[in-house]
Amino acid sequence: QVQLVESGGGLVQPGGSLRLSCAASGTIFSNTYMGWYRRFPGKQRELVARVTGGGSTYYADSVKGRFTVSRDNAKNTVYLQMDRLKPEDTAVYYCNAVPIIFSWGQGTQVTVSS
């Protein structure tokens, strides 16, 4: 069973950057679409970025041009580079497959505030 562990969150000022990592304990097939989701307080998780096994990407309009998703299939790791962060990016970030097939990890808190 695959377990997902997100890391890299923290407190950053508006305009700053963070790089999130998602390490899978088991093997994620290279053709599995992987995504980053975020959850605002009291809301459902929303998909913000997705990467295919071949590296093709999708971004929600709210993060397009600021976030970059990538993966290292050999390391079973997915990344999210977040640049030009805004206060409205404040949320708990999770990774999972697209569509969701794994149990959720604990997520990593991203707080954008001055």
Characterise the protein shown here.
The chain has 114 residues and is an all-beta fold. It is built from no helices and ten strands. Strands 2-10-9-4-5-6 form a six-stranded mixed sheet, with no helix packed on it. It has a four-stranded antiparallel sheet with strand order 1-3-8-7, with no helix packed on it. The chain is globular and about 40 Å long. The N and C termini lie far apart (40 Å). The mean pLDDT is 95.
Based on the model shown, name its key terms.
114 residues, mainly beta, 6-stranded mixed sheet, 4-stranded antiparallel sheet, 10 strands, 0% helix, 46% strand
Short description:
Helix content is 0%, strand content 46%.
Give the helices and strands, then pairings.
Blueprint: E1 4-7, E2 10-12, E3 18-24, E4 34-39, E5 46-51, E6 57-59, E7 67-72, E8 77-82, E9 91-97, E10 108-112
Parallel strand pairs: 2-10
Antiparallel strand pairs: 1-3, 3-8, 4-5, 4-9, 5-6, 7-8, 9-10
Helical stretch tally: 0
- Listing every helix as H and every strand as E from the N terminus to the C terminus, the arrangement reads EEEEEEEEEE
The 3D shape can be described as globular
Rg measurement, Å = 13 Å
Largest sheet: 6 strands, mixed
Average pLDDT, all residues? 95
Helix share bin: under 10%
- How many runs of DSSP E, i.e. beta strands? 10
Widest beta sheet: strand line-up: 2-10-9-4-5-6
Question: Any low-confidence stretches, pLDDT <50, length ≥5?
Answer: none
Structural class: mainly beta
